Amino acid sequence: MAEDDTSIKVSRQTRERLSRLAAERGTTLKDLVEELAAASLTVAEFAERERRARSVLEEHFGVKVTEAELAASARLRRMIAARETAA
To answer: Cβ of 24: how many Cβ atoms within 10 Å?
Structure first.
């Protein structure tokens, strides 16, 4: 194991699922977990991405996104996430 590697504890069921997913994608379990972590935004990262997007919309297109529009967008994202979780 490389010096900067570490281990995480998950249930056997989760480990088996991750192993199946990795095998189906032709990758290792380690690489799959790293890919999943890299693809998932933290709250701070998401907020920064949102700030940059709003800035670009306003600067280049003259569109100022309102707080009401942001709230509606957040509700839509929650609905989508709930559907994905239920699937």
So the answer is: 9
